[in-house]
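It is worth pausing here to work through a concrete case rather than discussing structure prediction in the abstract. The textbook approach is simple: state the sequence, then state the predicted structure, then interpret. We follow exactly that order.
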Amino acid sequence: MAIILSQQLKICYDERLMPTQKEYWDKKIRDWSYASYKKIGQTSLIEKIASFFRAVETRKEVTLKLIGPKAKNKTIVELGCGMGEFAMGLVMRYKPKKVIVYDISEIAIKSVKKDAKKLEILSKMEFYTADVTTIDKFPQFDLVVGLGFIEYLNPQQMEKLFAIIGDKPFLFSYFEKKLSFYNLLHKIYISMQKCPGAYKYSKKEIRAFIPQKLKLYFVKKNGLQFITNSIKIR
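Step two, the predicted structure:
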């Protein structure tokens, strides 16, 4: 009995120590971005090591090629924009009507605004500091994209997200739930970093989150995996 009580108290204590997603990303976003995109700035050793496995720069470039040609004169929503590397690249290269960015971290959004102003593309962007899981609609848009975003949504949040998107085109990167060396390393990394919530889903589970009337395509490019409901993006 004493052992069980001790374990329960430890769980409660650990939960109190666990940061919220906002706290986690406010603390993490600069380190993560600098390491992932090889920027000049102070980065931790663990992020330098982790960046070798993420292929974030490749993911950004592949996604730009997938949706860029369809983005001209369109309004694009990016969920979990981080420090804006993808969003600003899209504006600079493909001339969309507007790119609307969301991130839970105020630090991230402030950084994107600052850089967009320097690049003189501020008028082509719209910014929201928000927990996307708590909102019920997005501004008018033509396509929604998320890179490394849905991995931080639990099943209920996934269902809500795709219900909000409805039949509008989307493209999300994802890492499939399966036994692999990468997934094992990622699980260790998430535990070490005290991430408050990270998830992986099988193709069957992802299909269940999408409204049944919509088609769903699993796209593989340059070793990276994406999901989309638009045959034009494939």
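Step three, interpretation. Residues 2-17 form the longest helix (16 residues). The chain has one domain: 19-228.
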